[in-house]
């Protein structure tokens, strides 16, 4: 009886959500991405969205009356740990450093839960379908790399986030899967020119807010020497560059912390954590990422 009542309650919402979903897919075909295209849920099961709600104004200094959201991408390391960029927490004021402000969305491609996802979430819990459940979990611990330095072109821009409760990242039937890490100290992979991908909720055109749907960018590995010259950096230690010069393709605000993933022997490997790009012309410059192979030992020392 309860199931029958539940279905009659949610059926109108389900129909409406499906209709809106059709309209939404048509709209996305014409959305102007910076070289990216929308991805579906489950296509990149290690991709996560980190969102912080930051209070910006308080009435009488006590009652919150205005707030803003901060969005960053990240990658699943195991059942409890996420890797992302350190500057997501360090460059947005003291409120962003309070890890309780952050929630992590996993196994999703949407920035926010839509009506159809809410319905599937209820049904997933009712019928024990983990592939329907919406995974949104509060973070309870933040570990920023101890040598992170924003004044040195965001050097060591990497951080680890601990989830308040575990997720099934090793289950073959789970929509959440952990990403493979490279070998510690391996700078030979990837090679210049190798095509890699990054996924995230970055803006779809310069000056816009985050994309409502996660998008995929295919970016070739860029020469370290050229990247260093274009950004006027002293060196490219512990960094990797990917993208084009004047190619009309690039990461954008909201892509910070997102994974740069390359294929190695048929497996997807986390090569970089998106760190920064040109503030004024993101579609004309390659993206600079933190080279994960230089931090594998540090990652293991924290999560173990």
Alpha-carbon distance between the termini?
47 Å
The assigned structural class equals alpha+beta
Oligomer: single chain
How does the overall form come out from the CA principal axes? globular
Mean pLDDT over the full residue set: 81
Q: Beta fraction of the residues?
A: 25-35%
**H and E string:** HEEEEHEHEEEEHEEEEH
Unreliable stretches, pLDDT < 50, 5 or more residues?
A: 1-33
The side-by-side strand order for the widest beta sheet comes to: 8-9-10-13-12-11
Largest sheet: 6 strands, antiparallel, barrel
GO molecular function: serine-type endopeptidase activity
Protein name: Peptidase S1 domain-containing protein
Signal peptide: 1-24
GO biological process, one term: proteolysis
Structure report:
Residues 1-24 form the signal peptide. One of its GO terms (biological process) is proteolysis. By secondary structure, the chain is α+β, with helices and mostly antiparallel strands. The protein has a domain at 195-293: Thrombin, subunit H. 20% of the residues lie in helices and 30% in strands. A six-stranded antiparallel beta barrel has the order 8-9-10-13-12-11. A hairpin with a 3-residue loop joins strand 2 (47-59) and strand 3. It is globular. Mean pLDDT is 81; it is low at 1-33.
């Amino acid at each position: 009886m309860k199931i029958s009542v539940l279905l009659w309650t949610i059926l109108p919402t389900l129909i409406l959500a499906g209709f809106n979903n059709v309209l939404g897919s048509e709209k996305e075909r014409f959305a102007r991405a910076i070289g990216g295209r929308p991805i579906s849920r489950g296509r990149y099961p290690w991709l996560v969205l980190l969102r912080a709600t930051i209070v910006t104004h308080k009435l009488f200094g006590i009652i919150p009356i205005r707030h803003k959201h901060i969005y960053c991408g990240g990658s699943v390391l195991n059942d409890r740990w996420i890797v992302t960029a350190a500057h997501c927490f360090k460059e947005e004021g003291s409120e962003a450093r309070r890890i309780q402000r952050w929630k992590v969305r996993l196994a999703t491609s949407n920035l926010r839960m839509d009506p159809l996802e809410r319905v599937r979430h209820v049904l997933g819990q009712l019928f024990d379908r983990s592939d329907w459940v919406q995974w949104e979990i509060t973070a309870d611990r933040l570990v920023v790399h101890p040598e992170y330095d924003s004044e040195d072109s965001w050097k060591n821009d990497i951080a680890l986030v601990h989830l308040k409760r575990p997720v099934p990242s090793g289950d073959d039937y789970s929509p959440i899967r952990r990403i493979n890490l490279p070998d510690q100290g391996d700078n030979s992979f990837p090679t210049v020119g190798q095509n890699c991908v990054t996924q995230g909720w970055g803006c779809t055109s310069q000056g816009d807010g985050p994309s409502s749907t996660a998008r995929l960018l295919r970016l070739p590995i860029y020469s370290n020497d050229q990247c260093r010259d274009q950004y006027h950096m002293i060196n490219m230690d512990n960094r990797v560059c990917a993208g084009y010069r004047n190619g009309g393709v690039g990461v954008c605000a909201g892509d910070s912390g997102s994974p740069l993933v390359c294929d190695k022997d048929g497996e997807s490997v986390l090569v970089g954590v998106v760190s920064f790009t040109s503030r004024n012309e993101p579609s004309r410059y390659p993206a600079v990422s933190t080279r994960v192979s230089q931090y594998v030992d540090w990652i293991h020392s924290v999560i173990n």
